[in-house]
Amino acid sequence: MFSKIIIILAVNILLYAKTLKLGYVSDDLPTFKNPPVMKTKWDKIFRWVMGQYKSCPKYDHLLTTIIHAVISAFIYLAFGANHISYIAAMLFSCNPANNQVSIWISGRGYALTALILLSAMSIPYVAPAILLMIGYFNVGYFAPLALIGSTKYQLLWMLPVIWWTWRRKFKKDFLLKIGVETVVEDSKIHLKKLILAIKTMGFYLTLCLIPFRLTFYHSFLQSCAGNDIMKKRAYSFDKFFWFGMTAIGVFVWLWITQGWSITTYGMFWFFVSIAPFSNFRRFQQEIADRYMYLPNIGLMIALASLIHTYPILIVLFMTMYISRLIPIMHMYTDDYWLVEMCVNEDPGAWYAWHIRGFKRWDNKSYREALTMWVMAKLLDPKEFKILFNISIVLRLLKQYAEADAYLKMAEDNIIEGQEEAAKALIAEYRSGRARMLL
Asked: Is the pLDDT of residue 179 over 80?
């Protein structure tokens, strides 16, 4: 057992050694440039571990690698310290679908949630004290539900304690997220939302097993609650809906024919962990790779239980994962490469082109910015912020007729529930105090 833990840790250190040369990207940058006020040395250490304080990318990436390595080792321990859990730990270690947590520093909360849950499963005598901490993270509030059906189901008595202890923080953060991330359609509950939930789950499941697209800005379900074009696309039946339905069918079939096994439990872990991010009642980004981290643990357990007697399949999956993981690390070199590689990974994502336009705008390359936003418009012709930004650039370039035309299009495509804020922006625009929309 000890030798396998050493191997798991060593594989992780070797795989992610390259990340020590990488920098800060996306949400890393605001906390690096404007660090939080820290009262004591211990407060500073706490915030550093939580990923809320950043001062040196090398040390931050080292800590991220260590945490991911320890999580992989705990997968081996938490699921029985046997051959299946060993294979699952190795698959999880190198799975590139984990990149926004195994590499990205700002994904630390998702990693620590997984670490707390797995360590509680592995160290029974102090499990309640460990598990109580999981509610600090919003993603951890419902994470213990994955214990249902496990050999550690006794720990479920902690769930109401966790919810009671962290209820105020969770409610505050939840309401804040709703105010920033969502629109009116997201709060509506109707039968079509089941289509959205099933296809979201099918997309994540497919991406975990076969990492075909790794990016910060996915075209899949982009603006799914926004304009009519994207909303209609979101509620349509596509391949990921059928992948999701197939996965549910396989789960039910295995449960009926084989009973409750490590395979069915692994699939159940995936389903229950991904449910909060299924877009049935959205309060977060539509699609993000970091949401897969905790669910992927269960999926790798299920996969390992199916292929552990087939060495060729084990090698095939690990080779596929590593061959995708190594190149994707380059995305975390700096914020420039993040955006460029996101466009390359998913050129159909309008938001990637939108961010690319912002980079050009910040560098005062206004015509290039216009080009990027026009590309974004081609992908989503009714996106308010794209139309609004194009109007501002055209006005700057003294193409007043075209600017007015785009402003009119923006007015015609205000998202439901955002009328008041949009009209205030348009009023500012007409008074000569226009500002770009991110």
From this structure: no
Contact 274, 238 (CB under 8 A): no
Token pair of 80 as six digits: 């029985």
* Inter-axis angle of helices 293-307 and 57-78, nearest 10: 50
CATH superfamily of 349-430: Tetratricopeptide repeat domain (1.25.40.10)
Question: What is the number of residues in the chain?
Answer: 438
What confidence score (pLDDT) does residue 133 get?
A: 94
Sign for the pseudo-dihedral over CA of 4, 6, 11, 16: positive
Residue 26 Rama label (left phi>0; alpha psi -120 to 50; beta): left
Least confident of 213-217, 344-348, 398-402: 398-402
Exposure string of 297-315, with b = 16+ CB inside 10 Å and e = fewer, is bbbbbbbbbebbeeeeebe
Instruction: Give the separation between CA 213 and CA 201, rounded to whole angstroms.
Output: 15
Separation of alpha carbons 401 and 376, rounded Å:
21
Cα separation, 213 vs 390, whole angstroms: 29
Measured at the CA of 304, the angle between CA 302 and CA 306, to 5 degrees, comes to 75
At residue 420, the pLDDT reads 80
pLDDT at residue 260 above 90?
A: yes
pLDDT in the model for residue 240:
96
Average pLDDT over residues 375-380: 94
Instruction: Indicate the domain borders of the chain.
Output: 2-336, 349-430
Q: Give the Å distances, CA to CA, from 263 to 76, 80, 87, 269, 306.
A: 15, 13, 13, 10, 7
Q: CA-CA distance, 125 to 127, in Å (whole number)?
A: 6
pLDDT band at residue 218 under the 50/70/90 scheme: very high
